[in-house]
């Protein structure tokens, strides 16, 4: 079975700025174009007023705090959606349509996963064309799009089970002229997380150390159903507000996060070295404990 690494645990906070990724370890080869990374990044502190000056659509959503500083109402889904579009446009030169009925990704959180890959996974791979697989890419196609900017040596394949999400994700890729680096695939088999053998699946042309994909990444559905979501909120363990707008398949999956990721581990054994590194976000401590036990049983390296 290929190696599996775990990104830092998905934060259970609604804060727009999640914990920072680990510091990058020293490297002897900087051929992956550090200057590109420095160009496409979020600032340590965001001035919403200055951001709105560069992205006019944000101005109607600005509100003034008691300190006279400008911010937005993070409980307003439209304000959050336009803020994310502004961040992507100004700091990453990405023009993205974020549907009002789909999950709106937190840019800093998603970028931290990309940075984690850059720090912990990419340095272990040979230099040259690398391809990552994003499981459940969503309408925003946020991980491949951010990855295309921050990891100039990487290409991506994003999969999703929702036909509408795949269509919008493809439009987001095309309008940013990244179709040569990002492919989006509709996975019609809801029981398979790694549809590598599906008809017309866009496998990479180049192997990386014997593997077709350098890595896979995943931010799985968190809940089994609305009842679990309510229960976790009552226990004060839930990250998003119940006002979160999203498609059901973006939030819920049969068996919840635990079963989804257990299936991913099972499929990684079957796919073996077709993917070099298997990574995922994990939202619950009990899921993490379950996965560690399952991984040890599968003989995964750590």
UniProtKB/TrEMBL annotation:
The keyword S-adenosyl-L-methionine applies. GO terms for molecular function: methyltransferase activity. Keywords: Methyltransferase, S-adenosyl-L-methionine, Transferase. Residues 1-11, 27-42 have a biased composition (Basic and acidic residues). GO terms for biological process: rRNA base methylation. It comes from the Eukaryota. Pfam families: Methyltransf_10. S-adenosyl-L-methionine binds at residues 110, 136, 160, 219. SUPFAM superfamilies: S-adenosyl-L-methionine-dependent methyltransferases. The keyword Methyltransferase applies. Residues 1-42 are annotated as: Disordered. Belongs to the methyltransferase superfamily. METTL16/RlmF family. This is U6 small nuclear RNA (adenine-(43)-N(6))-methyltransferase. It comes from Coemansia aciculifera.
């Amino acid at each position: 079975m290929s190696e599996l690494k775990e990104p830092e645990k998905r934060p259970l906070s609604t804060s727009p700025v999640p914990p920072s990724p680990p510091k990058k370890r020293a490297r002897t080869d900087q051929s992956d174009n550090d200057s590109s990374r420095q160009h496409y990044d979020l600032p340590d502190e965001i001035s919403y007023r200055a951001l709105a000056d560069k992205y006019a659509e944000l101005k109607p959503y600005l509100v003034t705090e008691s300190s006279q500083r400008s911010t937005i109402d993070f409980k307003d889904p439209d304000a959050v959606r336009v803020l994310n579009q502004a961040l992507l446009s100004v700091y990453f030169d990405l023009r993205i349509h974020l549907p009002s009925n789909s999950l709106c990704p937190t840019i800093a959180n998603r970028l931290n996963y990309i940075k984690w890959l850059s720090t912990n996974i990419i340095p272990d791979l040979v230099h040259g064309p690398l391809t990552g697989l994003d499981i459940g890419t969503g309408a925003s196609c946020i991980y491949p799009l951010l990855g295309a900017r921050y990891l100039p040596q990487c290409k991506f394949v994003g999969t999703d089970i929702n036909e509408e999400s795949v269509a919008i994700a493809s439009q987001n890729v095309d309008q940013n002229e990244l179709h040569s680096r990002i492919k989006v695939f509709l996975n019609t088999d809801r029981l398979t997380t790694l549809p590598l053998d599906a008809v017309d699946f866009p496998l990479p042309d180049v192997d990386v150390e014997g593997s077709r994909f350098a890595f896979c990444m995943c931010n799985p559905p968190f809940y089994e159903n609305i009842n679990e979501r309510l229960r976790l909120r009552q226990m004060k363990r839930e990250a998003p507000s119940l006002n979160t707008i999203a498609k059901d398949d973006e939030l819920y999956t049969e068996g919840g996060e635990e079963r989804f990721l257990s299936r991913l581990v099972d499929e990684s054994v079957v796919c073996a070295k077709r993917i070099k590194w298997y990574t995922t976000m994990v939202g619950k401590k009990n899921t993490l404990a379950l996965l560690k036990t399952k991984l040890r049983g599968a003989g995964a390296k750590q």
